[in-house]
Write a structure and sequence with these properties.
Number of strands: 8
Radius of gyration: 18 Å
Low-confidence stretches: none
Strand content: 5-15%
Distance between the termini: 26 Å
Largest sheet: 8 strands, parallel, barrel
Helix content: 40-55%
Number of helices: 13
Order of helices and strands: HHHHEHEHEHEHEHEHEHEHH
Shape: globular
Strand order of the largest sheet: 1-2-3-4-5-6-7-8
Amino acid sequence: MLGPVILAASRSDRMRRLISAAPVSKQVVDRFIPGETVDEIVPIIRDLSDRGLELTMDVVGEDITRPEQAAAARDAYLALIDRLKELELGDRAEMSVKLSMFGQALDGGHELALANVRPVVEAAAAIGTTVTLDAEDHTTLDSMFAIHEELRKDFPQTGCVIQAYLFRTEADARRLAAAGSRVRLVKGAYKEPAEVAYQHKHEIDKAYVRILRILMEGTGYPMIGSHDPRLISIAQELARRAGRKLDEYEFQMLYGIRSDEHLRLAAEGHRMRVYTAYGTDWYGYFMRRLAEKPANLRFFARSMLTRG
């Protein structure tokens, strides 16, 4: 399987240098990451919003090693929120944040990440939107869920992400499927050991459906993070069986993947949110997109050969 190999490469400094230096790489990356600055991303926000789509914005970046970098990540999100306020687009775009960017892995990282993310959550609430805490590898999740619980005391609309491939996630879903919660379900995009995670696609797909049923039958707000046509159809059927209205759940897909499906679901009246990343530190994000789906890797390889 290529997925684990690609995920290993996402942590390789040598591979980072090789791919980042290739002239064609940036052209291909633009499919998934349409800009590096707030100014470059504003036309994308306007265009998607005009098409009836909502967004979740991710300022890409990982491997924070100093508190100053964590503070810079916080400030980047605050600048984005200020711009959304100016554009009066706060109700169309939420934020997705990785707590690793806010210093979670540093000494005293739990408290540091909470201190850095809280101003972002406060600023988002002030313009009528919210923040979702992304899930990262399994060793970070207890801290993420604790921060999520703490933030929800003052900002109950704060969301979180759960990953279907982890054995623990069904229990997490039961705990989170409560009134007022916002939970995004994804398959998972980190290399996890067999002791904690399913390793085969058919196992992950079955777990995804089991967990999605828990969320749909609960009283929270499920967010379906998938491009899989079969899982999308199953989600619609589970929502129907649970008696959910179209505004009581939403679909989320990545920018640059199945864009026609984004528009189709929105045209049918579904809430459709496009996960849109931007920034200069794109390597780790990009490599996980390749690992998630063989078609992404084929696209990248074909583009490298054609444009190189």
